[in-house]
Amino acid sequence: MEDRDPSTAVSSPAFSMENLTLDDPLSPSTRFSSPAELAPDLPSLLDLAARGQWRSVIDKVARARTTSLLSKPHEHLIYLAFNALALHKLRRFTDASVEIDSLSPADDRPDDPFHHPRFQYDSYPETYPTLRGSMLPFSVRLLYADLPQRIGNRPESLDRLYSLLSFARSRSGDAWPRRAAFVLGALACNHFIHREFDVTLSLIRELLASNPSDPVLLSRLGYVQLQIGDVEGAKESFALVEGMKLSGTEFENLVGRNRALGFIVAKDYVAAVREYEVCIERDPSDVVAVNNKALCLMYSRDLSDSIKLLEGTLERVPTAALNETLVVNLCSMYELAYVQHGDIKKGLSNWIARVAPDDFDSSCTRT
Amino acid sequence: MSALHTGGSPSSHSLAFRVMRLCRPSFQAEDAVLRLDPFDLLAGEDLFSNPLVSPIVIDQAIRRQPSSTSDEGGGDDFSFRSRFQLQNPSDAMALSGFLILPQSFGAIYLGETFCSYISINNSSNFEARDVIIKAEIQTEKQRILLLDTSKSPVESIRSGGRYDFIVEHDVKELGPHTLVCTALYNDGDGERKYLPQFFKFVVANPLSVRTKVRTVKETTFLEACIENHTKSNLFMDQVEFEPAEYWRASILKVDESISDSNAQTNKIFRSPLLIRAGGGIFNYLYQLTQTSQESGQVKVGGSNILGKLQITWRTNLGEPGRLQTQQIIGTPLLPKDIDLQVVDVPSAIILERPFLVCLKLTNQSEKTAGPFEVTVSQGSSSLPKLVVVNGIQKLALQPLEAYSSTEFNLVRGLHFIAFPLLI
Fold it and tell me: What SS3 state is found at A34?
């Protein structure tokens, strides 16, 4: 250690404790200087999540809790967030709500239901000597807002989501505009599903106000406009996207798929199929292009080829193609193509059970 | 979705019809697939507001995963990571562009096009030969043939095979409709078999239009109120008034540039006009004027045909529906018996110099009327007298025959001017 000028040496306890942690791995304090400090066994948790093995996530959380793997307050919270997310993924929505409720959110305090010192780093100065602010993962707030509608209470979810939006907008810091935009997106999705298109559009307007050049967002505006029937509006949105002239397969496929939608509107299914084929050639795992091409084949009276395309893609790139919408479409095609469609759908269902992630909604096969 | 009701006994047949209404597909929002930003899952929400903590720890945590590949297309990434991790900030909208087939028959409305995929399947072990297929729509009033292969029958549908076709029909009647599909074929035993199958649906009225007509001097105003009876918010793509002969129409709209906030938001994109589901209304206002100078083409006391309203609405992926109202009739114009018009007034009047006003008196009744007395009203006595009569105050005119007119002059002088007034 270099000699210090006594007049400039900092002698506060925090400074000396920092020096301690650099050298002493058994120190109780955390500075989050490495991923290991985010949570114990995090790579394993993330790996399970990425493989869609949510049942294993739940097992792992249960084991961690019983074996006292979790010692610091933030570790409990990260594991709780993973657990609640896993339960949500497995559509065990009541259980997920119970998990969130174990934090005792103040339901009657909509502006910030998790306003409590126990979620603040400052409340644990020995563990987090240098940190301030909330240690609650934002995903907990999202799940808290999302869950009521999953158990039949949409108005409560809407209230919570709009309150969460205000909350995110009232906070300062780099992450909060991104979180506010997330909530705006979730609300737009909610209103879209309930066909409240005027609200959907005004939410998208707000998103565009702070993000006017996001080609994916503009394309999504186009999809909403097309769903409404505003063909001219969608044309303009897609033209804006195409005009950005970005590079890369993702962008080129986005533009190609948007162009194909224009052909579908004009009922020129042959041209739409061509566009999708160019996309698939560029990126064989562009499952949106595959799915939509199959629909175009069907609308061109070619039910057999549409089925072959979807079956072939599921076989070729299962992890990309295993998507509930694609499977619903394939099952609708089976129901049309076969008088006795029970067997073939059962076959598909069995294959899905072997290959699909835990969160795949197998009710989509309607077997 | 598929077949609604089937008639006939398909079990004794080699062939069977499968039917699916093919309205346009819809965009699917995958809202059950919750995707999150790792920052919001792996760390406290305020962790990175602390200056000593670097967000790089999150990137490191993600990259540690064995299946983690950053910028490659999904092909090499044999994981379901995209089902829980956000890739684009707006992924919360859950709209990836996936289209989904119609999952139910849905409602069908007057003015729409009924489109259906019809597949005739051979689920037997034997070939079906010389298949004559017919599809027609039957309503209370008529039968409309959509398909008929009598002239060129399908030679063969092999065992396990299929013959598909798509039919379209513009729906122009309300009430119950039946799609009748029939197949006449030779089965495996060489027997000629007849298979009829029936699929029923009901056509409802999507809109109603109420009109109000008001006439103010020479302008007729038409207010059309469109009410939406469907179950979804309806996008009005085009609503146009087609005036009848001798009429000209222009739409009166709210000047949207007046409202500042409207101007701002409409720069991003225009709001489409949506009429709310189940009883929402929207009013259109048209100004109509007659193109001919004479009012003679209007029959006295008779009807007054203004024109028709053409409505085009659109639903998912631009699926159009079209309706036209019947002829809209204005209030019959009751002509006045006696009409006094100013024919000529000098465009510039010089103070204290007499000026000539030319008037025309028309007797529009069937009988001789008169004699007449024309006076200049001086208005209320409290106002200063602005126009001084110079010359005859009262003019007596001879009786007028039916439908005839006379012109006469009055000489006036302007005494002093405060505000010009028309007599």
Answer: coil
- B8 inside 8 A of chain A by CB: no
Copy the structure tokens of residue B329. Answer: 């009739």
Is B406 in contact with B400 (CB distance < 8 Å)?
A: yes
Nearest-10 Cα torsion for B412, B415, B420, B423: -30
Residue whose structure tokens are 């409602």: B107
Q: Beta strand pairing status for B328-330 and B304-314?
A: antiparallel
Q: Which of A197, A329, A361 sits opposite B100 (nearest CB)?
A: A329
Cα radius of gyration (chain B): 37
- Per CB-CB distance under 8 Å, the chain B contacts of A201 are 269, 271-272
Nearest CA distance, A151 vs chain B (angstrom): 13
State the Cα torsion A294-A296-A299-A305 to the nearest 10°: -40
Closest CA to B80 of A48, A354, A349: A48
- Closest chain B CA to residue A219: B97
pTM of the shown model: 0.83
**Which chain B residues are closer than 8 Å to A326 by Cβ?**
98
Q: Minimal Cα–Cα distance from B194 to chain A, Å?
A: 18
Residue by residue, pLDDT tens for chain B (423 residues) are 444 334 444 457 889 999 999 999 999 999 999 999 999 999 999 999 998 888 888 988 887 655 444 444 444 456 899 999 998 989 999 999 999 999 999 999 999 999 999 999 998 999 999 999 999 999 999 999 999 999 999 999 999 899 999 999 999 999 999 999 999 999 888 899 999 999 999 999 999 999 999 988 778 899 999 999 999 899 999 999 999 888 888 998 877 655 555 555 566 788 899 999 989 999 999 999 887 655 544 444 456 788 999 999 999 999 999 999 999 888 766 666 677 777 777 778 777 777 777 777 777 777 777 677 777 665 555 555 555 555 555 666 676 666 667 777 766 655 444 444 344
Assess contact for A280 and A289: CB atoms under 8 A: yes
Asked if the Cβ–Cβ distance from B41 to A264 is below 8 Å, we say no
Quick check: B95 and A214 CB within 8 A?
no
Residues of B in Cβ contact (< 8 Å) with A225: 269, 272
Q: Which residues in chain A are contacts of B18 at CB distance < 8 A?
A: 335-339
Shortest CA gap A356–chain B (Å): 9
Q: Which of residues 359-418 of B touch A (CB under 8 A)?
A: none
Amino acid identity of residue A72, one-letter, is K
Give the integer Cα–Cα distance in Å for A225 and A232.
9
From residue B289, alpha-carbon distances to B243, B311, B327 in Å are 10, 22, 17
- Which residues of chain A make contact with B99, given a CB cutoff of 8 A? 264, 291-292, 295
Nearest-by-CA chain B residue for A364: B103
CB B343 within 8 A of CB B337: no
Tell if the CB–CB gap between B47 and A37 is shorter than 8 Å.
no
